Amino acid sequence: MDAESLPYALDLVAGGGAGLSAEKRAALRASLLLLRRDYRFERVRFWGRIQGIRGPYYIAEGLGADRAGPRSRLYSLNCVEWSLLPPATEEMITQTAGLKGRFQGDPSYEYEPTEKKGEENERIYEEEGGSMIKEEIRLVAMIDQIDKAVGIVPRGAFVKTPLGPVHENRNFEGLSLTEAKKLNSYFHFTEPVNLKNRTLLEKADLDPSIDFLDSLEHDIPKGSWSIQLERGGSLVVLKSLLWPGLTFYHVPMTKQYGYIYLGTGEKNIDLPFML
What we know:
Blueprint: H1 6-12, H2 22-39, E1 43-51, E2 56-63, E3 72-76, E4 82-84, H3 90-96, E5 110-111, H4 119-127, E6 133-134, H5 135-150, E7 152-154, E8 158-160, E9 166-168, H6 177-180, E10 186-188, H7 200-203, E11 225-230, E12 235-240, E13 246-250, E14 257-263, H8 271-274
Parallel strand pairs: 1-14
Antiparallel strand pairs: 1-2, 2-3, 3-4, 5-6, 7-10, 8-9, 11-12, 12-13, 13-14
């Protein structure tokens, strides 16, 4: 959610029962604009909130000229003071893969590493002296995992230039109501996986400038997205059932869209058995 339209956007997704207090909204509105100035971001977005046992983490994203390029992420415990998070790496994701349960809400909290398997891993573990895993590292990996799994945009909202960079499509005027009710009108805003496996015949009908991402219709398990029409059909809301707390909104025939995560950072691993 863009910092400029944050109050309006939060009202649109409030139908799901999640939201922020008026105090937190005001603090976010002011502090995010200061973040953009201090860090010289082209745009700042409020990514969401991960609720811990002792308190929540508020997450913001800073974007550069290339919208699909690396993003700077920051977290705050009070919506006023922000700390920059390190970029997510494969090592971080591997280290935290076995950690389960709720976040504590304390960035300095340390987790014991999961059980090491194999002689090589055991040797490395002993050499490092059994280093602990900080919750800040787990937070980085979790944000990256959620964003790659359920961070979505409408089809046509972004355009890929022949040289590679991705920019906002100035000609995008929103999806029609008919298109907005279809899963194939929404894309994962991350490196495509399924697109590379398509045949040339399947790619023939695609526009390479806007169809360069994976659509939601091929998500596994099928049925992991809920599409709802609200406010008399003037608002389309998508909710992820795989990552409860992720809500996406789009006002058809306008440029207004965005998503927010308000959850505990826990994946619904039982979803395949619930469908």
